[in-house]
Inverse folding.
């Protein structure tokens, strides 16, 4: 990677160089966190020879890069080792199920096991002699059958796994079961199907506890859990999920809600976040989510930078008390990187005001703000049941005045505010109660014209008696991950400021509503660099 790179992150996971996309097979195993990822070792674009790169960590923040776990080598994966997952089988043996792009460019599922279970880093993986262990069933396109999940075991002792698929424009999720993890039977009835929305990539299927924030292991089935089915819609590049009831005896998942194709559908993150995957961390009894955060600059830039693609900071996920949505929060370990702190307490933010948060390195910061709201009755009226939040945000830039809001943060901002990414709330009164719009607006994030600058937004219902609303943003040079209302809404942005870089980046709090809001408390910390180590053996690739 060339020197002097203002957009390369300092505490998000990145490979030493070149292209990265999907998280693969994350797991905790005997004291070590493993992370595999889709990687092109030969360049900063998606490549012909995709491998499973491999890194290990003791805290999910500081990493050691190892040599690749899987590289194309056999007829069943010679055109790429695509995404998949790890399952820990009986006798604590981990197994990788991954998609091979085979010599006919068909997608098949393959199995790999560690060569030496006593190597704490599980450096070497052996592909199974009976690969491929699954091929596309009839009614599924042979080149659109990929991304097996972590398997779960039923009470009958059989393993189940689901796999993304497509036929024409119709997305499908295929259920497969096996007694020995090698011989698989594919269920002719799709586990999930959605017409006209294209390929369902990278499914994820996991239980969540109905009370508390603890996670549960993937095979757990009892009355105190619900299930989550997550799908990556290839056409939209967005992560949709459904809560519901899994009925193992009928091999059936009954979703609580139907997909509508509108802003009412649930997404893990309303911004740049894709191909995500969870795992159960049995050390800390939590379920952790990783997601790929794509670039939004040009391929030419990626080639100049020598790298492309980030991973989100791992997030803990759990079911909200309402049972109607998931909650997400950056894992607590990221707080170890918090360095110099500044605080603001009880500060009035009158309409039209902007307040700088000074004394921190604003290009790499963790900031948490609690806003105290005025009486909600004064909120603007919003007609119509179905408003498109992104349209609302793009028409009403953060700089335009509202009543209660827009208020929030201006991140990676230049001193004169010509560059800024606004992450903000605005509150509305609707026929069905109060709604909060949360938005992240990249339109002014850089003076550069050749970037894909998006506006991401969603609305959520708020209690009429709500007094405060919180916002946390993890800012790291070209990424901003924001968590509204304690993790109810997540929005991730990739931005490439040209002025607001390094020491010239600033952080502000603003209020452009006519109503005053208060900063009840704000804490911001400069963030230290995460450590990335390399094993010497990794240098074999070029
Ligand atoms: N990327 C992988 C596929 C997956 C897609 C290939 C999602 O397995 O469907 O790198 O980003």
């Amino acid at each position: 990677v060339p020197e002097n790179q203002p957009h390369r992150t300092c505490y998000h996971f990145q490979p030493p160089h070149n292209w990265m996309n999907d998280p693969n097979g994350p797991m905790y195993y005997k004291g070590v966190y493993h992370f595999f990822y889709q990687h092109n070792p030969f360049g900063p674009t998606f490549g012909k020879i995709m491998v499973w790169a491999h890194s290990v960590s003791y805290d999910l923040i500081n990493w050691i890069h190892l040599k690749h776990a899987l590289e194309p080598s056999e007829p069943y994966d010679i055109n790429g080792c695509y995404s998949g997952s790890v399952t820990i089988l009986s006798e604590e043996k981990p197994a990788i199920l991954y998609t091979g792009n085979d010599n006919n460019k068909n997608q098949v599922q393959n199995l790999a096991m560690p060569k030496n279970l006593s190597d704490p880093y599980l450096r070497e993986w052996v592909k199974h002699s009976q690969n491929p262990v699954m091929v596309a069933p009839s009614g599924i396109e042979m080149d659109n059958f990929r991304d097996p999940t972590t398997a779960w075991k039923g009470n009958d002792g059989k393993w189940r796994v689901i796999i993304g698929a497509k036929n024409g424009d119709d997305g499908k999720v295929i259920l497969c079961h096996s007694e020995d993890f090698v011989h698989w039977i594919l269920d002719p009835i799709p586990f999930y199907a959605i017409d006209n929305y294209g390929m369902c990539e990278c499914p994820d299927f996991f239980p969540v506890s109905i009370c508390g924030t603890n996670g549960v292991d993937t095979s757990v089935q009892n009355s105190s859990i619900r299930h989550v089915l997550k799908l990556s819609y290839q056409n939209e590049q967005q992560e949709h999920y459904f809560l519901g009831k899994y009925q193992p005896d009928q091999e059936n998942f009954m979703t609580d809600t139907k997909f509508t194709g509108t802003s009412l559908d649930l997404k893990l993150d309303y911004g740049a976040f894709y191909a995500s995957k969870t795992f159960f961390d049995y050390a800390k009894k939590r379920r952790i989510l990783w997601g790929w955060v794509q670039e939004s600059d040009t391929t030419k830039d990626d080639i100049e930078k020598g790298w492309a693609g980030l991973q989100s900071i791992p997030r803990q996920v759990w079911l909200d008390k309402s049972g109607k949505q998931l909650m997400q929060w950056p894992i607590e370990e990221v707080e170890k990187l918090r360095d110099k702190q500044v605080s603001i307490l009880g500060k009035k933010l009158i309409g039209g005001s902007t307040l700088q948060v000074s004394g921190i390195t604003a290009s790499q910061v963790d900031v948490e703000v609690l806003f105290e709201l005025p009486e909600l009755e004064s909120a603007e009226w919003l007609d119509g049941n179905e408003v498109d939040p992104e349209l609302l945000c793009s028409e009403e830039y953060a700089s335009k005045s509202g009543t209660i809001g827009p208020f929030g943060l201006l991140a990676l901002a230049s001193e004169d505010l010509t560059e800024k990414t606004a992450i903000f709330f605005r509150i509305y009164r609707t026929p069905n109660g109060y709604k909060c719009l949360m938005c992240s607006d990249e339109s002014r994030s850089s003076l550069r014209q050749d970037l894909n600058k998006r506006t991401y937004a969603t609305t959520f219902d708020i209690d009429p008696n709500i007094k405060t609303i919180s916002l946390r943003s993890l800012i790291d040079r070209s990424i901003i991950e924001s968590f509204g209302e304690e993790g109810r809404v997540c929005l991730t942005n990739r931005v490439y400021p040209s002025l607001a870089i390094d020491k010239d980046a600033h952080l502000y709090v603003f209020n452009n509503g006519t109503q005053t809001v208060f900063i009840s408390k704000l804490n911001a910390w400069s963030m230290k660099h995460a450590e990335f180590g390399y094993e010497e053996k990794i240098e074999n690739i070029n």
